[in-house]
Design brief:
heterodimer, A: about 575 residues, mainly alpha, two-stranded antiparallel sheet, two-stranded antiparallel ribbon, disordered N terminus, B: about 475 residues, alpha/beta, two-stranded parallel sheet, 10 strands
């Protein structure tokens, strides 16, 4: 397959798009190489099989840049630390120490669970030390709590039982000996606790600071499948955001189970139905589509905008994607769903008989003019300029988030959109303003996508016409876009949603985001075969989000050790 | 006795400080007493404290600094009521204004905010552009921290998510930006126990060895030894990549043993005092903190005031504060912003002179609003400088305010201003306003790093080479 890069960055473009959202990052990686390209390590990028055939143009039309390091030691996120600590210490409620931990840097990677932003520096070590000491003290000073971890009073048994949970595998003989030595210091400590409690306390302090607790590891030979314990940890930490429980560790022991693709998928299937997985995927969709931005929506001079709607817009978005995930729906449903979630302030804006309770949310049909998430209030209100549609940002967000299309850098100083001339619609003035971009940017890459939403104003309300002074002007929401699998046309947003629901590029892009989240790394051109496999599943009749995740788990990229350069 | 190991891994800490945090709140990392030649307690070379404060979105340069360079006086600054820095008049004698600093790239290549942030404290063009821009080298605070054996503190007042913390870099490459604390309570909780606290064991008059502290230190050493051994074993595994090993080594180097001493390494008196600290405002942020733009200036003041305590108590030697994010959504209640209508524009929009987060315009009312916001920000800075002065830091600190941009509408980084309070250990000019006529920010940073490390030789940390002599005393 000949792969081409359509380099847009060299052109000086006058584009009226956000200088910091319509951008291409010149990463340090050429995007082409991955562990599979390193001779001799035996890993095939994207995994075995050739079921996912993708269009030859895919590489040139997808933004596949990044700088993955393929770490084999990946630190727990703060949420994973909290949940794992609660589990291994059998606490009734989550510990609160992580609320004061340093948080992962956001905005530099697609997701905040990316390997690049999870390290332990001095500040991080200090956080972990303090938390370990506090929690060890809390547990070891409470005999009833201590007995939940281990019912006996011998050090060896305590170390073995707790160590397996903390390390996510049985301890080795050497590790056991090290901890026994620590445990034996117990009687020398001051205080009135039992010798067992004192010994247990220092053992817990050390275990919670161990790199085998703080990092998930993949330590076998390159090109070999993760061990059962390693897969148990990877699945549990991804799908349940916590450490494997005793049952899973039992299932992980020995070979021929979780170290096989089928074995891993069987376990994962059950996890995907766990409420914890829904919470994990809520975070995925929130970061993927930037739900955090709802908090900052502000409008000037818009009478029917109340900032109190902002949290409703966010929660309605989360609820939409909760349903997509938990009810076994897929990418197509993101674009074709005819219902949405409505809060009290949203109902009045929707109109058309849509109602909502005084508090809380109701799932409601959206009416004939809206299908899919992107024709619902949250997206349209977010990407708007006061009461007007922000065609350019709608186009940019669709290009970047839904299609993973690479956009060229905007001009350094972007001139403002002029006031519409008499007889000019918003579309006409944006077209005129951006025509200097030529054929490779706004005209082809951004405007066609943004103009599809012209029937929705800046408050997300549907309209057939728009006003310019006293003139009532008909709206043209038609367009065409050159997707990975060819040019397609549409008459309006509803048409565009139908196109996107089945288009190869949409499924490739969603697969890319999901893979980045699941693999905890940047996804690059070398991963195209993997994306092809996942996109094929996504586009199939069986294409639920859960099924795509299961397929990812069966791929070599997920279950075979690779690693970065030595 | 705890065996002395590698001095870079040994943390010498006052018994009071140690016991204040043990078992409850992490004591964090008070200054590492590890380099005898730069000892805090050498009488002729007291420590220098460095604080980089980086604002966003530019300022109205025509109304920022005085109209003429030269001497700065309280009366002169106070009388220049049309300029934002008039708010700093009480501190004129300890101020150094620098005008006209240039960053490596004159303006944006793709995302002006992210790229400019990356250049501000590194003095280097970004290694990658766009909104995920990253650095081509470590930032000045990191270099100072390495030289002094103490990691920088990183603070941030702004929203997380888009172009959030992006000024402190541990190294070149992706994933090296230092995470910053948004909640002022976090540093407060670590530092406040040091300030003016009574000895942890009342009644001890001439303590020789405190058994409680010693037991805790021994215990930690035992745990640390086990953890270090595990990290070493991991690092020796041939399957790990160089990146894996580097990451584990960073963790390994971060682990500190404690040598508990009885000496007063923590200063006493006004230097290390919580007098005047609005403690109720910090404790109100303890639970459920969510950053709100409307409280931007309040949070900044809290960050500044607790940093004064942190420096005064020798808790930290170098820190950064990013003031706002790249698309700052704060709506300032200043007259001209309110005159723009509809409840006012966001600061980012004001800086663009257009109610837009992308395009730039030339609305004169927006420019007035920006100047009024500059004044509000300088008033906040003045509150911070008051605190630094109250802790007696004017001769030992260099509190550096600058901006990631020279100009809001153009996102230019040509002609960035810098305000320095404190002489940096006597190294810097005071009471002066200088036009640098386009000096590279790397040279200014090199000068500040030389002050921070009290090293005027070629061994001082540097970005490229050269310092800016005109700012030296």
């Amino acid at each position: 397959m000949t792969l081409r890069y359509l380099k847009l960055g060299a052109l000086a473009l006058t584009v009226a798009a956000s200088a910091c959202t319509a951008s291409i990052a010149d990463s340090g990686s050429d995007g082409k190489t991955g562990p599979g390209s390193t001779p001799g390590n035996g890993v095939t990028p994207g995994g075995a099989g050739s079921a996912g055939v993708i269009s030859e143009n895919a590489a040139g039309k997808l933004k596949l840049e990044g700088a993955p390091n393929y770490y084999r030691v990946i630190r727990l996120t703060n949420e994973q630390w909290t949940n794992s600590t609660q589990a291994v210490l059998a606490l009734a409620s989550p510990p609160t120490q992580a609320e004061t931990f340093q948080s992962a840097v956001s905005g530099t990677t697609d997701f905040t669970n990316n390997e690049l932003v999870l390290d332990v520096d001095s500040r991080g070590w200090s956080d972990y030390e303090g938390a370990a000491e506090a929690l060890a003290k809390q547990v070891s000073s409470d005999p009833a709590q201590l007995s939940k971890l281990y019912s006996g009073t011998d050090g060896a048994g305590f170390i073995a039982a707790v160590g397996r949970r903390v390390y996510r595998r049985p301890l080795t003989a050497a590790e056991t000996a090290s901890y026994q030595k620590l445990f034996d210091m117990g009687p020398s400590f001051s205080g009135s606790q039992s010798a067992f409690a004192k010994g247990a306390g220092i053992v817990l302090e050390a275990m919670l600071q161990s790199p085998y607790f703080l990092y998930r590891t993949e330590l076998g030979a390159a090109g070999t499948p993760l061990s059962g314990y390693e897969m148990a940890a990877k699945l549990s930490l991804w799908l349940r955001n916590t450490t494997p429980d005793d049952a899973l560790l039992d299932a992980a022991a020995g070979s021929g189970k979780l170290d096989t693709a089928a074995g891993a998928a069987t376990i994962a299937q059950k996890m995907l139905d766990d409420p914890a997985a829904k919470a994990v995927m809520r975070k995925f969709h929130g970061e993927f589509l930037h739900f955090g931005k709802f908090a900052d929506v502000s409008k000037v001079g818009v009478a029917n905008f109340d900032p109190a709607i902002n949290p409703e817009l966010a929660e309605a978005s989360y609820l939409f994607f909760d349903k997509i995930f938990s009810q076994g729906m897929g990418v197509k449903d993101i674009f074709l769903s005819t219902s949405g979630f409505v809060g009290p302030k949203m109902a009045a804006l929707y109109g058309g008989g849509i109602t909502a309770p005084a508090s809380g949310f109701v799932e409601s049909p959206m009416g004939a003019n809206r299908i899919g998430y992107f024709t619902q209030l949250p997206y349209l209100v977010l990407y708007a300029h006061n009461a007007e549609p922000d065609s350019i940002h709608r186009g940019v967000s669709m290009a970047l988030d839904v299609l993973c299309a690479p956009l060229g850098p905007p001009a350094p100083v972007i001139p403002p959109l002029p006031t519409p001339k008499p007889g000019q619609t918003n579309r006409m003035r944006v077209d005129e303003h951006t025509k200097g971009c030529g054929t490779v940017c706004h005209n082809n890459m951004i405007n066609p996508l943004g103009f599809a939403f012209e029937n929705f104003d800046g408050m997300g309300q549907y309209r057939e016409t728009e006003m310019n002074g006293a003139d009532v002007l008909p709206i043209d929401a038609s367009g065409s876009f050159d997707f990975v699998d060819g040019t397609k046309t549409y008459n309006n947003a509803t048409d565009l949603m139908k196109v996107l629901a089945t288009d190869e590029q949409t499924h490739l892009c969603y697969s890319k985001k999901l893979a980045s989240f699941g693999l905890q790394r940047d996804v690059i051109e070398a991963d195209l075969p993997l994306l092809g496999e996942l996109a094929a599943t996504s586009a199939s009749s069986n294409g639920s989000v859960k099924q795509v995740m299961l397929d990812l788990i069966k791929q070599d990229a997920f279950r075979v050790r690779s690693g970065g350069a030595k | 006795m705890i065996a002395k190991g590698n001095f870079m891994n040994r943390r010498s800490i006052n018994r009071r400080a140690f016991l204040t945090g043990a078992g409850t709140v992490a004591v964090g990392l008070p200054f590492l007493e590890g380099l005898p030649s730069r000892s805090a307690w050498a009488a002729d070379s007291p420590p220098v404290f460095t604080f980089f404060i980086v604002a966003q979105n530019g300022q109205v340069n025509s109304n920022f600094f005085p109209s003429a360079t030269g001497a700065l006086t309280t009366a002169g600054l106070a009388g220049a009521t049309d300029i934002a820095t008039s708010a700093l008049s009480a501190h004129a004698a300890n101020l150094l204004f620098l005008k006209g600093i240039n960053y490596p790239n004159p303006g944006p290549k793709s995302c002006g905010h992210a790229e400019a942030n990356v250049q501000t404290l590194t003095g280097l063009a970004p290694a990658a552009n766009g909104n995920t821009a990253y650095a081509a080298g470590p930032s000045a605070d990191t270099l100072i921290g390495k030289a002094l054996g103490a990691d920088p503190l990183a603070l941030y007042s702004g929203a997380k998510g888009f172009i959030a913390e992006r000024i402190s870099f541990k190294a070149a490459g992706a994933g090296q930006v230092r995470s910053a604390d948004v909640n002022p309570y976090l540093l407060y909780s670590k530092v406040v126990g040091l300030a003016g606290a009574a000895p942890a064991t009342p009644g001890m008059t001439t303590p020789s060895v405190d058994p409680v502290a010693q037991e805790l230190a021994n215990r930690r050493k035992s745990v640390n030894d086990l953890v270090r051994a595990e990290l070493k074993d991991l690092m020796n595994m041939s399957v790990l990549s160089s990146a894996d090993k580097q990451r584990l080594d960073q963790h390994f180097q971060a682990i500190r043993d404690i040598e508990v001493n009885m000496d007063g390494m923590v200063p006493t008196g006004a230097a290390c005092s919580k007098d005047g600290l609005p403690e109720d405002k910090y404790t109100a942020l303890k639970n459920g903190f969510v950053f709100k733009g409307a409280q931007m200036e309040d949070y900044v003041k809290l960050h500044l005031q607790i940093m004064a305590v942190a420096f005064g108590c020798n808790y930290s030697r170098v820190a950064t504060l990013q003031w706002g994010d790249g698309t700052d959504g704060t709506i300032y209640n200043v007259p001209s912003n309110m005159a723009l209508g509809g409840g006012g524009w966001t600061f980012h929009q004001v800086s663009h002179r257009l109610q837009s987060d992308s395009a730039s315009g030339n609305n004169p009312t927006a420019e007035k609003a920006h100047h009024e916001i500059d004044t509000v920000r300088m008033q906040s800075l003045a509150v911070g400088l008051d605190a630094f002065k109250a802790h007696g830091l004017q001769d030992t600190a260099q509190i550096i305010w600058t901006n990631t941009l020279a100009d809001g509408p153009s996102h230019s980084t040509r002609g960035v201003p810098m305000i320095i309070w404190g002489s940096g250990g006597g190294y810097l000019k005071q009471g002066t306003y200088i036009d640098t006529a386009g000096v590279a920010n790397a040279k200014v940073l090199n000068t500040l790093m030389a002050a921070a490390t009290r090293d005027k030789t070629a061994t001082a940390p540097a970005i490229g080479s050269g310092t800016y002599d005109a700012m030296k005393a």
